Amino acid sequence: MRRLIFKLHLYASLIFGAFITILGMTGGIMAFETELADLARARLVYVTPGPRPLSLAEIGAVATNHFTGESIQGFGLATAPNHSYRVRLRHRTVFVNQYTGGILGEQAGPDGVDKFLNGVHQFHLRLLLRNSADVGRQIVSWSGVAMVWLLVSGLYLWWPAKRARIRWSRRTAGSTRPFWFDLHNAVGIYSVVFLFALAVTGVLIGLERQTVPLYFRLTGTTPTPPARPLAAHAPAATPISPDEAISIARAALPGVAPFDINVPKPGERYQIRARYPEDLTPGGRSLISLDPYTGQTLFVEGSRTAPAGKRLNTLNRAVHTGDVFGLPSKCAMSLASLMAPVMFISGLMMWWKNRGRKVAL
């Protein structure tokens, strides 16, 4: 049985090891996707906090006065006092100091940082393979399943000897086999819990079409009803302002911090994305939809009050990205993710150097 498990462990690593390495490297970067983007454009993002931010109307006027002829598509509000606001115009995004009204700069379309991080994200999600069958996503999901097997079988194979340190004295002249063996064992046992969490949550994300309905069945809950339809209004009706919409959103979900709002076109509604202080995921998990003319609430779902099935899915994603406990868990998950390539390389070196030899189990 032990030899059979060893063979299956070896074959799984040889078949899926390259994919797991890609997932590990890209995942280690993605854990700090927001922080890397902000750091790359620090002069546009960071401001000195002032006593009171300007209203969205004032901030929007700053942008449109500077870029005449441009219409406002939406606003990005800072959830940290030292971060700037963003005004999305038709052809550019303008970064504005919300305390002074000064324009920090503009960004016309995705820059090099955005393209790189988006490429990393798509590589991690579907290996850059876009097609109707979503083959890349399926490969990623099966690689996650293989990772779960490698961790479980690896723990079984490790258990009798329980090697947990790299013994440099074991390195013999002309041979590095003992080093790779110790490295594989030590890295594996110290990162196994984190890698197991990454693998399982990743598989659940990849199979969300099946797992999300399961979450609702397990919790005995149902998804939040869809937004109510938008009522018809007279062509001359005056819409409420974004500032008014933000106030209504805050009243609908007390304690929430809105961070993104669109400026609706005719036939569209206000969509306000927000998060609570405990929501450490940059994208937030709260959404408020409003009638742009009456301010009537058409849809509300907060991360605190969402159905249990939705909150379970949100928790799974937060564990996978490392957002669940903020910076400490992001560091832990990023480091563990980067250990996956180390595990594959050390295991590959062990196999390469042991070709034709009988391996002691």
Keywords, please?
361 residues, alpha+beta, Nuclear Transport Factor 2, Chain: A, 3 domains, eight-stranded antiparallel β-sheet, 8 strands, elongated
What is the strand and helix layout of this fold?
Elements: H1 2-30, H2 33-40, H3 42-45, H4 56-66, E1 72-76, E2 85-89, E3 93-96, E4 103-107, H5 112-126, H6 135-158, H7 177-206, H8 208-219, H9 242-252, E5 257-262, E6 270-275, E7 286-290, E8 297-301, H10 308-321, H11 327-353
Antiparallel strand pairs: 1-2, 1-5, 2-3, 3-4, 5-6, 6-7, 7-8
Using DSSP, what is the number of strands?
A: 8
How many helices? The count is 11
Strand content: 5-15%
The stretches of 5 or more residues where confidence is low (pLDDT under 50) are: none
What order do the strands of the largest sheet run in, or round the barrel if closed?
4-3-2-1-5-6-7-8
Question: Would you mind describing this structure in some detail?
Answer:
The protein has 361 residues and is α+β, with helices and mostly antiparallel strands. The chain has three domains: 2-35 and 114-220 and 330-353; 49-110, Nuclear Transport Factor 2, Chain: A (Roll); 242-306, Nuclear Transport Factor 2, Chain: A, CATH 3.10.450. 51% of the residues lie in helices and 11% in strands. It contains eleven helices and eight strands. A hairpin with a 6-residue loop joins strand 7 (286-290) and strand 8 (297-301).
